[in-house]
Each structure stands twice: as C-alpha cells, then as structure tokens.
Amino acid sequence: MVAAPEQGRHLRYDACLPVVCRAVARTEEAPLSLIGTTRNVSLGGLQAELPAAPPEGAVEILLRVGERAVTAQGRLAWAHPVPEGTRCGFAFIGMEAEHAAVWEAFLAQQGGPTPRLHGRLAMDLPITCRLRRRPGLDLPGRLGNVSDGGMLVRLPAPLETGQEMDVTLLTAETPLVVSAAVAWGDRAPLPDGGDLIRHGLRFLPPVAEGPLRQDLFLARALLAEYLRQTGAAPVG
After folding, report:
1. With the C-alpha atoms ordered 91, 94, 95, 97, is the resulting torsion angle positive or negative?
2. CA distances from 207 to 132, 177, 179 (A)
3. pLDDT category of residue 28 using cuts at 50, 70 and 90
4. What span, in angstroms and rounded, lies between the C-alpha atoms of 208 and 4?
5. In Å, how far from its chain's centre is CA 151?
6. pLDDT digits (tens, 9 = 90+) for 223-236
7. What is the Cα Rg of the chain in Å?
8. Alpha-carbon torsion (90, 91, 97, 100), positive or negative
9. What are the boundaries of each domain within the chain?
10. What Cα–Cα distance (Å) separates residue 150 from each residue in 146, 210, 214?
11. Residue 51: exposed, middle, or buried by beta-carbon count in 10 A (0-12, 13-18, 19+)?
12. Running DSSP on this structure, what letter comes out for residue 93?
C-alpha cells in the first residue's frame, strides 16, 4: 500500500469515469455502494457526482480506467447537493502499488496531447434500435461498449450518419431506452463480426428534462449492469 499525497498539490484533469464509492465502516444509514461518474481527477483524489451524499470517514473508491480496475482508499473532503444528486471531492489516502501505476499512466495520458474525457465500459448486451425516419423498422443488435457520451453497437445493416433512433438496452434489471444518432459506421462486417456491422452512436438530449440527467442515469445503470456481469463489486 502506498500513501497518496494531498490532492491540492497536483494538477487536475477533466475525466468522466465510472466510479463506485463504498463506506469502509458499514452502518445502517450508509448505502452499500453509490455509483456515479467523475468530473475531474488528479494524483491525490477526484471530484465526482453521486446519486446521494457519500458517507463521512474512510471510503473505498472503485474506478474503471479502460479495461482496468483501480481501487483506492479515500476520505470525503467536501460535498454539496446538485440536481443530479451530490457533487463531492475525495482525497486519496492509500492505493496499492499496482493500482497506483495504472492510475499514474492514465493521468499521464490525460495530461498529454490525446486526453479522453469519457471512460468506456466494454460490455455485451442485446439491443433493439427503432429508427425514427423509418417507422416500424426495428433492428436487433448487440452493445459493444458504452460511455456517458455514446456507445458502440453492432447492427445487421449499415446506417447513414446522422440517423436518429431510440435504443432499448436489455439489462438484467430493466430495459433502458435512450435516444441516439449515428456518428460513424462501417460499411461491412469485420471478419469476426458475426455478420453485424459496427456503428458509433452519440447520445441525444432527452425530450423531457428531469431532475437527473440522462447521461448520468445511463452511466450509473450500465455500470451497475457491468458490475453484475463481471462480479467486480457488490451493488446495493
């Protein structure tokens, strides 16, 4: 275990990563886990948006950095309510050396010429796309990966860039429906693509604004599904 220096000494980088926060000392009042997304990150800690106020005292923080998991011990530095739940700052107080190496490599990338704002989760789920320009045509397909900005899907036919659709993702808990548009698409399946063609979709703003932004809701719901699939962390 390596101790983390104070967060204020380090540069902060914008990054939207899936994050799970859990209390180390469980109480009846504290939820088992809170699922949210980061707003910015540093070597010494991070800022996140969570659906509820996190517990005070020591917490365990689980992050997804690409295909790698990073776990840190931290403490709540500050918190205040926002329409989406609670915005809060965490200071790291310890991290295993292996995880620290992954985290430092990610921060180096964020400080370089090609930073990535959105973290992605690779996951396989059945989906159905209902095309808005072609009523009555539903395309079945598979989800490849997802971030809070968009997703990679595989569909049985090529679609035009800009085509808008409503995508139903069939998770174990409940179907999720999101609005999206085609950002890019291959013209033919990859050799090992199972006759399905890759498309990159970007999320569209929800028709009706609610107290919780669609991007945060989707990220939290799909992270919960990812954790259920992989058994990476209990969710409650």
Report:
1. positive
2. 14, 12, 9
3. low
4. 42
5. 11
6. 667 666 665 543 33
7. 19
8. positive
9. 7-110, 121-230
10. 6, 19, 12
11. middle
12. E
* Class at the top of the CATH hierarchy for domain 121-230: mainly beta
Candidates 1.10.220.30, 3.30.70.2190, 2.40.10.220, 3.40.190.10; CATH matching 7-110: 2.40.10.220
pTM for this entry: 0.64
* Residue 7 C-beta-side C-alpha neighbours within 13 Å: 19
For residue 17, give Cα distances in angstroms to 36, 37, 61, 167, 170.
8, 5, 12, 22, 22
Residue pointed to by tokens 């993702």: 169
Summarised one tens digit per residue, pLDDT across range 74-133 is 999 999 998 878 999 999 999 999 999 999 988 998 888 877 766 677 788 899 999 988
Three-state DSSP at 223 gives helix
Contact 42, 12 (CB under 8 A): yes
What does the pLDDT average to over 193-207? 84
| Residue 218 amino acid letter | L
Which two three-digit tokens encode residue 56? 């005070």
